[in-house]
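Model it.
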Amino acid sequence: MMIRTIFTVSLLLAAFSAGAEQASQDDLNWLKKIVVATRQSDYTGTFIYQSGSYLETSRITHIREGENEFEKLEGLDGERSEVIRKNDQVWCYLGDSKVMVAKREGARTFPVLLPDRLDLLQENYLISHGEEDRVAGYHAISFLFQPKDRMRFAHKFWAFSDSGMLLKAAVLDENHHVLDQYVFTQLQIGGDIDRKWIRKENFAAAKPQANSENDSPQNLKPVPVESGWKVNALPDGFRKIAELSRYMRGGDHPVIQLVYSDGLAGISVFIEKVGQKPASRLGLFSKGVSHVFAKMQDGNLLTVVGEVPPRTVMQVAESVRYEGARK
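Modeled.
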């Protein structure tokens, strides 16, 4: 990866903004090819997630049968963990026990990282064709998503030059240092892939249930709400994709969550009544590519979490206001 100073990046953006506001049609066609390949292809492989010194290894199997999409994600480190998905229904396992049944709400995980609406990305990123490389034994071409402002990170993707299958993805800071990355170390596309695990009985055993008054708080599922909480200084391009009332692990009271995305990066705002409970850790801290800013506001613990630079979570947090009816 090239190392550049912030000043150099600013000069490059200024020099090329007039002629590079829109990605070329060839690049857009390639990105569409990546979207289709990750969602429509059958594949199985092992990939590594790296963030600083943290390293995690997983195996993924993806099958498309008619209108149904199946995915199995297995953690290969530590205690056995497994996530199985059929369309938007997700079954999670730890050890030999099923611990949660959930509905996926627009979440994307490697290698399905690009959104369907690629045109929205052009509003916030300069998209360019990069160098060629070799990843997991496949010839790869790369694409760089350079942010148009300093409120989000750069992203880089490597795709198989034949089918468009995504092979590697990295988040880069302002100097193009890698903050975190996913990369396949072994991958089979098509061919003879095990399908035994997609039998009907594996998915019929656990169907999502509606919330019951007898459920413990931790078992209650997130509920869409209109909370009255607003973010008044969102960075350009971020759109609200969910507003939920949910119970966090170990919590006895519901927490409001506002979820925003620009198509690549995500920001969540959590608002929790603290009552007599002492406030959690306040201020700015980080974990890998994610930054967290927490503050007290009118008796609420307000926490902003995002895969964005520190300045972004701080700006968002300082602009949160309650604009609903006063109780």
